[in-house]
């Protein structure tokens, strides 16, 4: 199959450090290539892939201090894909609602994976006013605020099977992985770890938008028992997660997926998470972690974390969250899109 993967230009594919969407695009692209498909990746020029790279912009916009208008390069990306669309059997976008207007006017099947939160009030009139397009959700819970969108599948993310693996080490701290921002609630993580008498290591970035939150709320809470070590990449995650008694994910928002949960599972590390958004779809309570509703419940869960089998957690990752499973799910979706519309309606009816 001739497949185009179209990624945002903000980060490279894969990203140099933080960047969940671009990491998933990379995992999917490389797995499709490994399965023998003819894949072209539309992305920034500093991306690394075994697919054909169509470099629309020289480098990731986030890493280019000269870029002030992020919209311009993305408009160029849309036009480049339009010019080449006839070369593909299917176009797979990872750019929210951007493709709806332009690509609904041409004949090549296309689909968009929605990677972000859908509970923003401006999205309902946008989706209502644009031509309908086929979209994939990354969890069933992600769909709830936007039922009018044309969801054709829910496909959970996956990781390459051996990208992150358990390492033999002593577990002597709990981990927080991701971003320092209000909705991720690192403040809760710090309080939970302290109440349980366990050291916390925070491997997290601080975006410019969250500097005030970090300075006013998180920085004063740090200390010898709560250490902010900064961003880490995939090379450092196996040791970091394997050395943790648990990953703390005390979120305060409707998480669309939460890649860090399956990263922890890949290392055999249980997850203690608040039950918002996708969490109940990803974590099996009492098997791969504990779903909690308060700091007190999280502390209690941490005190019985050794009851969970790290071997079983890794096995559940292999069963449910590999990149191969993700790629197979997307291939099923592509094949359904390639059926003529009249036949699709007949098959559905």
UniProtKB/TrEMBL annotation:
**Entry keyword Transmembrane helix:** no
The chain positions of domain Glycosyl transferase family read 167-312
State the InterPro entries in the record: Glyco_trans_1, Glyco_trans_4-like_N, Glycosyltransferase_grp1
Give UniProt keywords alphabetically.
Answer: Transferase
Q: Does the keyword Transferase apply?
A: yes
Q: Which GO terms describe its molecular function?
A: glycosyltransferase activity
- Residue span(s) of domain Glycosyltransferase subfamily 4-like N-terminal: 18-119
Pfam families referenced in this protein's UniProt entry, alphabetically:
Glyco_transf_4, Glycos_transf_1
Q: What is this protein called?
A: Glycosyltransferase involved in cell wall bisynthesis
Q: What is the lineage of its organism?
A: Bacteria, Pseudomonadati, Pseudomonadota, Alphaproteobacteria, Acetobacterales
């Amino acid at each position: 199959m001739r497949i185009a993967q179209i990624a945002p230009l903000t980060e490279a594919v894969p990203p140099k450090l933080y960047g969940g969407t671009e990491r998933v695009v990379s995992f999917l692209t490389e797995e499709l290539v490994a399965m023998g498909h003819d894949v072209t990746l539309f992305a920034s020029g500093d991306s690394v892939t075994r697919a054909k790279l169509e470099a629309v912009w020289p480098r990731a916009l986030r890493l280019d201090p000269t870029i002030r208008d992020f919209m311009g390069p993305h408009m160029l990306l849309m036009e480049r894909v339009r010019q080449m669309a006839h070369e593909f059997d299917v176009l797979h976008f990872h750019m929210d609602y951007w493709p709806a207007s332009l690509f609904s006017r041409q004949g090549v099947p296309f689909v968009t994976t929605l990677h972000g939160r859908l509970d923003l009030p401006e999205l309902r009139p946008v989706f209502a006013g644009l031509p309908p397009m086929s979209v994939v959700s990354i969890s069933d819970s992600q769909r709830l605020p936007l039922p009018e969108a044309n969801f054709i599948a829910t496909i959970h993310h996956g990781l390459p099977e051996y990208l992150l693996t358990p390492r033999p080490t002593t577990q002597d701290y709990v981990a927080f992985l991701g971003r320092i921002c209000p909705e991720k609630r690192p403040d809760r993580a710090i309080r939970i770890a302290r109440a349980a008498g366990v050291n916390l290591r925070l491997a997290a970035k601080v975006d410019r938008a969250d500097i005030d939150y970090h300075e006013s709320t998180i920085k004063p809470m740090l200390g010898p028992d709560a250490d902010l070590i900064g961003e880490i990449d995939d090379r450092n995650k196996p040791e970091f997660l394997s050395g943790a008694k648990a990953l703390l994910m005390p979120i305060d928002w409707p998480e669309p997926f939460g890649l860090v949960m399956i990263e922890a599972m890949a290392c055999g590390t249980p997850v203690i998470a608040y039950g918002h958004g996708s969490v109940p779809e990803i974590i099996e309570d009492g098997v791969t972690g504990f779903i909690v509703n308060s700091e007190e419940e999280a502390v209690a869960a941490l005190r019985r974390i050794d009851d969970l089998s790290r071997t079983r957690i890794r096995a559940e990752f292999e069963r449910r969250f590999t990149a191969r499973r993700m790629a197979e799910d997307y291939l099923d979706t592509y094949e359904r899109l390639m059926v003529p519309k009249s036949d699709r309606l007949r098959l559905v009816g």
